[in-house]
Protein: Lipoprotein
Amino acid sequence: MNNKTKRFIFCSGIVFALAACSYPPSRQNFDYTLSQGQLELAQKIALEEGVSSDADISTELLWSLEAGTLLRMNSELDRSTKVFDTSETLIKENETQNLAVSGFSQAASMVVNDNVMSYTPRVYDRVMVNTYKALNFWQQANFNDARVEWNRVDDRQRRAAEYFSKEINAQKDSVKSNNLGETYSGAMEQLGESGIDVAKWAPYDSYINPASLYLHGLYFLINNESAADLNKAKESLKRAYALTRSKQIRADLNLANAGRNVVPGVWVIFENGTAARKLERRIDLPLFLVTSRVVYAGIALPTLESGSPTYPYLSVNGGKQTEAFANMDKIIQGEFKTEFTGILIKELTRAVLKTTAQTSMRNSDNKTVRLLGTLTGVAQAVTTQADIRSWHTLPYEFQVTYVKWPKDGQLQINPSGGAAIQVDLPATPQPVVVYVRALNANTVPQVNVLTSKNAI
Structure:
């Protein structure tokens, strides 16, 4: 065996190993334990995969997001906040990472696939990290730190539209600079014929997450300390109503406009189900899209599978029902649609590079090189995989309702089709939020009471 063949076999081994890591068994085990309602076991998997065992410091971003969420669901709020804190550190590193490292990762991804690169957080990931930290602090009556996190949520939301405007312009330039006009159009036609309808995905206006926006407004309504806080509440509630046309948000906006004093009452916020997930779709590209020297080449693209609610609604004290006001699927789909052009451009470019290299070697007069070309074709098939990583413990939707303070200090919540839940409210009547999280039908809904600073 000559040195060239040895080198290629060695490199092929690396390629196949990397390809095998694209869908790790740990993710499959994690998803299964979630589906069975085994939250503690799922938390253990996420911590082992993404958080250091000795200091609760995030080491792998996506797994740490899952771990922080499950710690929150399992009422380990201090650990949850710490994991989210260090997740933010990884997010900042991703935003400012060394260009040389980024360039090397990009080059490796062109040879293999995007799964060899570190997970790139979505805008909604960033917003939800700060939202969950704010809710953790609010639940602990740590109003100073909650205020800081809500302000960070607001800042991230305001920067979302600017970020995606730049992203869209960069993608247009990429289509032109890579001479992919005809290729891109042909690929989009193929996608349409295969059932991928990108046009149906649309973001909320300015890529805003209405749930985080509403919760920001509700926090400053209930916990306002000044006219400035009340103005924050009015602004967020006004924007949230414009996005959602929710009757409850309209009522809250009217309440904010009436003045600073908020009478005792209960807002029930319901985080319902699990959000959309990415699936792989493989597409066979015809001859003219790649090169005239091969019959076809394949590409692998992520697409979205809709999330699902756990319950249609919650009934509160036998009367009011929660109503949806924000859909996490719509948030995810909107961002994904905007990023899809860039994903497709990169996958088409990758297919051209791989197929051209394969064909060049197969057309060689040298038998060894032709063999290498065949092996390259096999490697191409194996490594053509889509990046389908996403945050799986996000909810499908957010619902809300409001009831007056019950005289007996008790709240009964009845999930539609589920067991009744009795909630003890604080001894002092005050405006509170009862926050309910139901991941799926196999998990008992988690219920927490978030009190008002103005009642302490």
Q: What stands out?
A: The longest helix spans residues 143-177. Confidence is low (pLDDT under 50) at residues 287-292. The chain has one domain: 97-455.
